[in-house]
Amino acid sequence: PPQGGPPMGGQMPPMPPGGGGQPAPVAPVQFFNPAAVPQRKTAAPQGVAQQGGAPTEQMAGMSMRTAPQQAFSLGDAQPPPSVWDPPQPTFLAPEGQSPSKYMHCSVGCIPSSASVAQKFALPISVVIHPLNDIPGQQNVPVVNFGATGVIRCRRCRTYVNPFVVFIDAGRRWRCNVCGLLNDVPSDYYCNLDGSGKRRDIAERPELSCGTVEYVAPADYMVRPPQPPSFVFVIDVSARAVQTGLVREACTTIKNTLSQLPGQPRTQVGFLTFDSSFHFYNLKSTLSEPQMLAVPDLDDPFLPLPSELLVNLNESRNLVDALLEKIPSTFANTVNPDSALGPALQAACAMMQHVGGKLQLYQSCQPTLGKAMTRMREDTSMLGTDKESSLLNPSTDQFKTLALEVCSKSQISVDVFCCCEGYADLATLLPISKYTNGQVYHYPNFEASRDADTFRADVIRSLTRPMGFEAVMRIRASQGVKVAAFHGNHYLRGADLLALPTIDSDKAFSCDLQLEEQSLTCSHVAVQCALLYTTSDGERRIRVHNLNIPVSTNMADLYATLDVRASMNVLLKTAVEQALSTKLMDARSRLQSACVNCLRGHRLMCQGAELTEEAKMLPIYVLAALKNLVLRDGVEVRADERSMLMMMVGSATTHATASLLYPSMFALHKLHNTPYGTPGADGQIQMPPLVRLSSESLEAEGLYLLDTGYMLLLWIGKNSHPQALMDLLNLNTAERLDGAKVNLPQLQTDLSQRSLAILSRIRAAHPLALSLYTVRQGGAAESKMLQFMVEDRTLSTMSYPEWWNALSRQLQ
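Request: output the structure for the sequence above.
Response:
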């Protein structure tokens, strides 16, 4: 455990007199702006590195100079467990439950009363990763009811599942969500065994598996399933050509066409733009592609409405010829303008009759048309209450286009932003956020440096498992309501998530709230139903089920707490708070949730120790406060923060855990260990995590840091030349500070193990992770140190000091 922290042993102190079991009011806990409070230089506690000056001396009245007279025992301050070997939840009986990779709850039980839930202070939430099919693992069973029709509750429309109860000799079933008795169709009837279960339960996946997929009948379709359609909108302005974006985009798309889903039904279309935009007629009967330029930006129109979106197989030769021709056609352009807004409108009109995936490749801010971003970054606003204005759109035109055109027409938009300098991402993001798309950001893009990352991102975005024309609804037992949804989506009505496309990388979450003062049921059922069209053109309903026990004992909430799932939701709500008010409010909300949750345990669970899992809450909250998503200060630029906030919106539990507490590995210690080699299950064995403190960085070491969106290789100043040669094929790191590198494939043990670890890391993340080298003492080292979340910084406490502060708050 780190030194300089609070006393960690001993028994829990008694409740203060007169407490009556009720938590005392807690003042909001805040990190103050260091520029706004007097600073006094203090020596760092033993074993704690001090970076950038002393921390603030107050956290809403928390003195950092006086030791508490009586400390609340939190146990030893341990780092989070490795995200590479997550413990499997054991608090839910596995029979009939959806696997946790698809859906899991932040706690293993539901509080029986609203007052207990309030004292617990953390949200009771469900995280859903609906299409998280892992290659090589068992597929989701498919059920086709045929002429019988899908079996659902007449009143609440819940799908039949393993937790419904059959009665009356199997002729009726009781809904586990609303309690209604439903008749069993005659051709679905089966008698019951001595225990009251159907005798055919083993042959009925919908009655034995927590996750199943139903073949949807015709009445679940507004229209016949449409062919998967992809429209590529490519910036061909002067900067796009000069940086290599045009050539790299065309080459990557051309090489990926054969892997597009849905073939031979797949359709494609192309549009390029600068000061005007250009359609391409790719009708299969033509001998070569035809360009059709449209200069009218105020009233864009389709010159050939029926011939711009073509079947890929039938027009493959013309598509290949076009992608080879576009770079040379615009090679000598000097046109600096960008009519991005009108080009997006035209592309949406091109595919609105079928929907699908639209991909935008952008190299500069739009300069023409109505929907424009603008240069509005003001560094004097960073770190102030006005910063939130930079994180919100300057115009609602992209949001309007997303909601009124894209979402209604089932179009999802991915943006590949390759702008130089400030791009005003906050204004552009809604076009992807409300269509469940994705944004990729390559600041100051240069193909010579960024082509490999760009290429990997494009390929994954086009080839990962995806569905089309999707909607998702979540139902919960009577007495419990779905109070809020979190993620990148458009909420249609009160509870229907509209998702023009859905892929294997996207996750969502929702909060559960008691509608009554107390629950009388023994379990709460939660069912998520995703209606979507597969890339093969089949309408499916994927259903996930959880049956969560209800508990009257508050200690059960802490005993079954899943901190990573809780932090997934807390971080998403903090981002929403930051965008609606200000960053300070978001940080205060996180800190208050942590303090109040631990206070609730101290006051209501006397004699019970916090579980090892619950002890992870303080470090994850501290890490969130120091993360670039919410960090105070002027070093985080608006585009970078906006991009990270967009990532958080669709992040899985694994992704938020990696973002908050990045994984750091000591590569120089791999020799004579099993790490970096395949284990019994065939997976590469990951090394133990190194604590995120500058004290952990040995001058002789080589450390790999996985932040979830980039990789850093820290090279100690005393690294052995042979280790550098074995890993990088270089005997010195003098020129490697801040360099983007690809590890060479060498025949050395260190190289092969490190490459295997890198491969597993990259496969686990939706983004292609670039690798940058950082040399100890070099100018780029600050990039590495900003992820050392256990260290003290100018405006935030170290991990031991945070524990001390929490101890004083919990007295």
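The chain is about 25% helix and 20% strand.
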